[in-house]
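Hi R.,

Here's the chain you asked about this morning:
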Amino acid sequence: MATCTIRFLYAAENREFTFTDVAATQSVISIKRAIVDKWPSDLPAATKPPDATHVRLLFAGKFLEDDKVLQDVQHVSVSDTTTFHVIVMAPPAEVKPTGAALPNEKVVAVSGTGTDASGRQSASGRCQCVVS
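And here is the predicted structure, written out as tokens:
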């Protein structure tokens, strides 16, 4: 079975780490899971992704799809070290509850009708904007 050596660059912390003997038949999602499981302990705990869905791998200018296997990714070498860039996506930001305007902010509600992309008349419902 063909294996690869993969070097991961994590630019947010100016670090790199390497996995050796990675099976060429391994899927991208399984590699992402391995990254989470083997996250370097000397990096700040806040940088560790909570799970594989928060990890993106960039190779040759393209984000790798989870269902791809290494041997199907063009230019991944089984004879030399291949470098992937690791991007950890931040968890979603907390959203302020609706209607909770801060002092000096005004909540503006808008409702009405319009046309959708297919030209049909539709109600837009109600949306609120916070104006400071």
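One quick note: The chain has a mean pLDDT of 80.

Cheers,
M.
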